[in-house]
Amino acid sequence: MKNMIYDCIVVGAGTGGTTAARTLAIKGHKVLLIDRKKKEVVGDKVCGDAIGKHHFDTLNKLIGLRYPTQDECEANIDGIDVISPDKETILKIQGEGTKGYMINRLKFGQRLLDATIDTGVEFLDKTSVISPIFKGNFINGVLTRSLDSGEKKEIRGQAVIDASGVTAVVRRKLPNHNIERNVKKEDMIVCFREIRDLTREIDDPNFCKIYLTQNIAPGGYVWVFPEGMTRVNVGLGLQNVASNPHPRQQLYESVLSDSLFEGSKVVHKGGGIVPTRRPIWSQVANGLLIVGDAACQVNPIHGGGIGPSMMGGYLAATTIDHAFEKGNLSERGLWEYNVEYMKGYGAKQAGLDLFRLFLQQTPDDELNYGMKHRLLKEDDILSASLGEDLVLNLTEKVKRFFSGIGKLGLLNRLRKISTKMKEIKGLFQNYPSPEQFKAWKSEVESIYKDTWEILG
């Protein structure tokens, strides 16, 4: 490593970082991958452990990413049950877009890391990145510290990828730029989850269950995801605002008290923070690209980030490869990463971000009414989750009923939000050039302003 300049340094060996590093190595680049954890525990992360099959369908074709092995796969998932606050209505969402897997996060992460190292990537574990190193206004390396010895080193790379997760160790140290250095606390979800062995078999072992309830999980939701017939991943996420209780306390008092968990035993537990919002405005700077949670590449509704982070890693690596061919690692030379990510995943996430704000501002009684009377049908929810426009079930009969019970405001807010979702998706699908970026950003901010006025 001494005096070596890498083509790219990847900070963080999670799903996004390993995918980026592996893709670059496959394309012939000299890559260094850095992580704080020791090699044997890379991948051991607290999360919901669910990932859609369609992500593997795509990445298998692009870089030969294998589907979860029998050893990694805890369960096959066919769909999602979305359950109303009063538990009287269940929206059963199923189709190709909801098929997926519950994975053993550690085993999956270890497989990704081993496959990445096998392509020739150099891996440096037990090492923290302190800050980026600049040469002029370009990032061309990172300052590191060994967690064993405390020794600091400067490591040089022609490009750097920040895939360091929600800590975003490189992004947070940037000077004023188009990139958002900080993410607002209220755009974060604080989670706590446990994997538990039950004393009896669960119903529908191939369906994930999501419970919407502002009373128990304000600004978030409760989940019970199956990992076999008698094991579940159960957790709860709350919007990160000071008035909300601690998620572990809420989980024990309001979820684990259910008879399903009587006599159950904890297999694994832990908490974390997830950015549930649109992606950051721009994901590139001179010599830098940002991937995964560090770029807020997470589904704003359910917090799923494994698939988007891997796609972000692939697109970032492909962009760097093109930039080397053109001899241009500037912000402009790397801008195609913004365009490619935003027109697909980014546009979907931006639209769902507005729907997330709607859900967070809608009390339980209105959620009960809306779900009971199918303002959104199951197929329409599935389509919206896959990036299509939100279609509402606003028949004259529904309108008359909601008007009669004094809930017409709910219908009007939902209708207006669906319009704003379509508008913001259109803007992200037509992501601007660097010259047009400022005007584009103002248009997006205007949509958020309108959304908050709609929601009161």
Helix content: 25-40%
What is the CATH C level class of the largest domain, in words? Alpha Beta
Low-confidence stretches: none
For the secondary structure, the number of strands is 18
Kindly give the count of domains.
Answer: 3
Kindly identify the CATH topology of the largest domain.
FAD/NAD(P)-binding domain
Number of helices: 12
Class derived from helix and strand content: alpha/beta
- State mean pLDDT (0 to 100 scale): 94
CATH architectural name of the largest domain? 3-Layer(bba) Sandwich
Order of helices and strands: EHEEHEEEEHEEEEEEEEHEEEHHHHHHHH
Largest sheet: 8 strands, mixed
Give the CA-CA distance, first to last residue: 56 Å
At the fourth CATH level, what is the homologous superfamily of the largest domain? Answer: FAD/NAD(P)-binding domain
- The proportion of residues in beta strands is 15-25%
Coarse shape: globular
Rg, Cα atoms, Å: 22 Å
Instruction: State the oligomer.
Output: single chain
Notes on the protein architecture:
This protein is an alpha/beta fold and 456 residues long. The relative contact order is 0.13. The chain has 3 domains: 5-72 and 104-181 and 280-335, FAD/NAD(P)-binding domain (3-Layer(bba) Sandwich); 185-275, 2-Layer Sandwich (D-Amino Acid Oxidase, Chain A, domain 2); 348-455, no CATH class. It starts with a strand and ends with a helix. The protein has helices at 15-26, 53-63, 105-118, 247-255, 306-326, 331-334, 336-360, 364-372, 378-385, 396-404, 408-429, 437-455; strands at residues 5-11, 31-34, 50-52, 73-77, 79-83, 90-94, 100-103, 122-124, 127-135, 138-146, 152-162, 188-197, 207-211, 221-226, 231-239, 265-275, 284-285, 288-290. It is 36% helix and 24% strand. The strands form 3 sheets. Strands 1, 2, 8, 9, 10, 11, 17 and 18 form an 8-stranded mixed beta sheet that branches.
